[in-house]
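Table S2 (text version). Query chain:
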Amino acid sequence: MSAFWSIWISVITLAVVFGVTWLLFATRKSEKFKETTEETVGHAFDGIEEYDNPLPKWWFNMFLITVVFSLGYLALYPGLGNFKGLLGWTSYNQWEEEIAHAEEVYAPVFAKYAALSIEELNQPGNETGLKMGQRMFANNCSVCHGVGGVGAYGFPNLTDNDWLYGGQPDTIVSTIVNGRQGGMPAWGAILGEDGIQDVTNYVLSLSGSEHNATAAERGQTQFNTLCAACHMPTGEGMQALGAPNLTDNIWLYGGSFEQIAHTLRVGRAGVMPAHKDLLSDDKIHLISAYVYSLSK
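Corresponding structure-token output:
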């Protein structure tokens, strides 16, 4: 932060500490009685009178200890603007230390399963490894793909056998490591609204859904010109490009007329983030094994 805000925060923080300390001593000095007394403060609350006794010494001393502790804390740890504290402590450094400790403790456990292939991890007797992968999936992947991997609107279902890029172990690992970048171009400006309607009807016809046969016939020509390069002339898609199969009833963004038309009109750009810098190879291996098990 800028020097101004650093000084501003420091001044306010110290002013509060010294301010309440002054208030404590000023209040103690103004006390009428220094020892326990039977005198009251002169008024009653619901018939209850309050003795005009001084603050208990233990309370006063505890407050002083708190003030000393707070000043010591502000000297040792961050709390005064840009001042990093005499110990140089940061939450990031502590996080790194905890991660390094966890890696050291669990390294032998991960090494045991890293020696097994993904296919072997899906064999009886390796349930513990899959459960580890399941927990890591829940922590890192479920926000998009759901706790059970069933997916959501715009996020693929991992429990079926329909794969955008392929469901082989090596392909799953590659997807998690490097991520994926979907690229469905927008055709609205090229096709026009009439063309969008025609191609939508043809796409619906590929999966046997209700459609207008006349419009679909017109749309087939446009599909072959603009879409077949990725989705193939048959509409069965191409996993090498991540182009989905249009002949089944599995839709990433919905299979209604309006949803398909919207996809054609504005395109799609789904992103699967790369996890190579977020997860170790051993963790990716176990997550991949769990994902592989979901569609078996």
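Notes on Table S2: Residues 3-29 form the longest helix (27 residues). Strands lie at 40-45, 48-51, 180-181, 271-272.
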